[in-house]
Amino acid sequence: MIPPRALVVWCPDWPVTAIGLDAATPAAVVSGAQVEACSAAARASGVRRGQRVRDAQRHCPELVVRDRDTDAEGRLFESVAAAVSGVTPWVEVVRPGICAIPVRGAARYHGGGTTGAGDEESLRVHVQDTVVEQGFDCGAGIADGLFAAELAARAGEGGVVVPPGGTPAFLAPYPVSVLGRPELTGLLSRLGIRTLGAFAALPVRDVTARFGVDEIRAHRLARGLYPRPPAPRPPLADLSVSTEFDPPAVAAEQVVFAAKSLAERLHEALAAEALTCVRVGVEVTGADGRTLTRLWRHDGALSALAVAERVRWQLSSWETQGEDGQEGGVVLLRLLPDQLVADDGRQEALWGEATVSDQIARAAARVQAMLGHQAITRPFPAGGRGPGERVVRVPFGDLPPEPAAEGPWPGRVPDPPPAVVHPEPLPATVTDADGSPVLVDARCAVSAPPHEVEIAGRRHLVTAWAGPWPARERWWDPARAHRRARFQVVTGDDRAHLLVFEGGHWHVEAGYA
Asked: How many contiguous H segments (helices) and E segments (strands) does the chain have?
């Protein structure tokens, strides 16, 4: 079944935009010691998501560094959602930085009465101009379904309109990595399937027989269909849950705690009906009679913690509205399951055992609840020459980074990649058979074969070595240019190391298992 037409508003580099810096400013939002997001100017200087902060500042000395604040991102994005709601009230927030609206009614109203290509383009431009007038750069795209509409918002100069029925052809050239499933991406790449068009061309019967439920959903997305079939029947009863506060709740934490309990009740009620919710409405009513309702979407079932987090964002944004803020507190909180789909379950391991991924997800959720969203991260492949640049770490539950560039990355060390990349390079000394230091000249000629290497005060005999792999980066910028040569060496203790010669000195960049 083809999904209905949707318009997606995408604010590029939203974490950076949320702190009030434009794309021309080299800026990065960091969490701990890693870059979480960066502006276009920072990317042009060599900064990448997942880099260590010190490496990012080495590439871009004028980099503006700010700590990530997810609550602030959610709160500030409410101004974007409010601007879009001026065009049509039916706005759903996918995540901070992306929101969506249905096209059919809005295109008729703003276009001229018929839902045609011209009306949809008029709507797209109108929504984009509305958000830009609020001071936020954005792209707006229209296609069949949210997945294709988000890609359409990122395409072209500010977004495009994909004609009705043209979504499969629009999606076909995109790499399978845009599905946001790294394990599936790796498997399909090994099978020679690298685009959504090639993935969509696989017979449904073969995909169903070979893959699990989540991969079947990805196959439906690649074909331009709903990721899940619609619910086979409407719910027999009102499944919304609510709670009243008497006296009114003034502290946001009290409302957020209640939201978590309500979400758990909602999940139990949906499970009893064999349903799951991929879009939930949060309705907050204040003591002064004001009501704020917002739709929140998630590709999977929103966990209780995820619902509570979105309630926090909504309350934070609401506090900034009006001259009197949120005086009087909250008297009613209601969660409404807006879009229900059949719960097709999960693919379990043999003999009814729980899968490892389920155990990891539950453990990660508990740790994130105690230590914050950035406490658990997942590695994703990225482009680069050095091993530390080829992997970025993304908080568990967040979308993966943009697809890595294919290369060719001259000077890149061939696979297999190292097992360990040292956070701080280890100083090393490499000598030849006569005890003289081994050097590498400007033409990458090695003065003598490596014979011994000293690492952390311990000397090891070199039994095998390969290299060099030279890399000269940013040669056009003398202030940030550097030249290095990498070597693979195997020592007498049966260990393998990746050594780097730079500026007349050696250090150990990574180690092999």
From this structure: 15, 19
Q: What does the H/E/C string look like for 89-133?
A: CCCEEEECCEEEEECHHHHHHHHCCCCCHHHHHHHHHHHHHHHHH
Q: Per-residue pLDDT tens for 89-109?
A: 778 888 778 888 888 777 777
pLDDT score at 113: 52
pLDDT for 234 equals 46
- Residue 228's identity, in one-letter code, is R
- Collapsing DSSP states into helix, strand and coil, what is residue 360? helix
Angle CA 393–192–177, to nearest 5: 30
Neighbours of 11 (CB within 10 A): 22
Q: Which of 310, 237, 225 is nearest to 273 (CA)?
A: 237
Please return the burial class of 182, using the count of CB atoms within 10 Å of its CB with bins 0-12, 13-18 and 19+: middle
Tell me the DSSP string of 330-387.
EEEEEEEEEEEEE-------GGGPPPHHHHHHHHHHHHHHHH-GGGSEEEEE---SSG
Structure-block tokens of residue 128: 């984009």
pLDDT reading at 485 higher than 80: yes
Confidence of residue 231 (pLDDT cuts 50, 70, 90): very low
For residues 119 and 112, the answer to whether their CB atoms sit within 8 Å is yes
- Residue type, position 97, single letter: G
At 435, give phi and psi (nearest 5°): 85, 5
